[in-house]
Amino acid sequence: MPTNVADFDSQPGSLDIDSVPSRHARWEISSPLTLGGGMTLPGELSAAQASGMFDVTIMMVDDDPMMTDVIQAYLEEAGYRRFVVLNDPLLAFEAARRHRPGLLLLDLMMPGMSGFEVLAQVRNDDALRYTPVIILTASNQTANKLEALELGATEFLSKPVDPSELVLRVRNSLVFKVYQDRLANQDLLTGLPNQRVFTEHLLSALGKAREESGALAVLQLGLDRFTQINDSLGHSAGDRVLEAISKHLKACARRSDALLCRLEGDQFGLLIPNIKTPDVAERLARRILATMSRPIQHAGQELFVTSSIGISVYPGDGENSETLRRNAAAAMRHAKSNGRNTFEFYSTELNSASVERLTLETELRRAIERGELVLHYQPKIDLISGRVVGAEALLRWLRPGVGLVPPAEFIGIAEETGMIVEIDEWVIATACAQMAVWRDAGLGDVKLAVNVTRQDLAAGGLVRAVGNAMARHAIGRGQLVIELTESMLVDRVEHTRKQLEELRGLGCELAIDDFGTGYSSMNYLKRFPLDELKIDKSFIDGTPDGGTDCAIVKAMIVLAHSMGMRVVAEGVENAAQRDLLRSLGCDSFQGYLGSKPLAAAAFQARMLELNAAVPG
User: Fold this and answer.
1) Distance between CA 124 and CA 140 in Å, rounded?
2) How confident is the model at residue 52 (pLDDT cuts 50, 70, 90)?
């Protein structure tokens, strides 16, 4: 069984990550190798790994057979067992490629081809490049040693060879080779094999599957909303959670020939070779989802971390490793977009969606600098007077060759890629600039609302961006409204409250958007300095005929007013809904009854038209 896979007889229960020892200390080299007596191994090399050094192939290249015989005798006495001996340097490079030695002992001065030339060949070969090379030389010339070092020599041994020095230099070189291999092949945090190992094993498994007309499966697993843990608990806690999750995943990898690796960040890969049907991959995915539904204990609280899994199967979903991995990743993203905490098999439809998504992401990155993002404005209309009392700025993307793209089609990508913070700062700056334009055109101080995201609060630059935009355009107190969703209030509560208080200090008003669709906690409503509550369209749709929706809307209005907040109803589309809201005491409304979202100039005209129609 590969060392990376643990086979557990039972599912793990909740895992206390406070009891998971940190692995960081294992990667600190506290002292150099001791040349006498005991040996201090970097990275706390295990006994098995230290013992395995004696099974490493040692290759010797020297035109003097007596010298190679003597060296082999010394090393055999020290416990080394595997040797490749060459007295013809012309054969050295091909032999090294064939045998892949763990260490090369190389004479410098040889007829036909010098050790310098052999060393250059070794260092220019991808497979041999990092092989330790100990130079054997009777020369004391500094120029020779410098040239060898320039070419990548690891150590030097003077002829005639001292047996004690030989054994120590060989041992030290191999220890660091083992440590180097661990750094190259193992994820330092979780101890799992890394992406490089995953790729190598996948290539090997594909070769075998082609020869035997077999099949294999690639699973890519991404943790759901893991950034929230880093943002709310800190990166140290996030690392501990990743360690704990890796233990869960090891327990799920029950097949003895399955390979579990950490790919990057919060993503893991599973390779299942020699599968008879895709059902094998499905069973493993279901097992992982069931196991990860159990809570993880941290600092006395329970954390629930779910995952989304994408699956691709050879040969149907790809003929090479790159395609299989790309398709598994596409399936994983689709699983996330379908609600998370699930798995998806790859399909050709997903590939088309993946290509479109990549194109969308690439074009979106250039949208700001190209001036393709625009704001449309939907009026908020007072239910008593009928006058326009403000507006909400709604983002649109004027995508070349496509036209106006609604935010639902690109905001998710912007959030996943981190572009959302830059976009939201652009929205704030543009909205403030537009308020100044309307003010200068004689429309007065139009109250304008903009939406912000969780990433804006986490990044910490929201207050600065708002303050700069308001100052630049002389926006007065109470003109700019910042809209937040309920879910944003439950993340890093104190951090969020502090930022909201700073925004209030700048003169912003704060609104809770889409109320009733998230946590709807009265506790959160009273803890934050909110000015406005917006009732979600889903509740308005059921009025005026739906008794339950009418009761809910009435309760929301009473609640908000009792807490000193004004109320805005979203998605009002007919006069009956408007009249009901007026009778229930709602303050204002948005929706197609008043106007669809409009470009700035059209909004200005619509505002003047609506206000002119108001009697008196």
Assistant:
1) 26
2) low
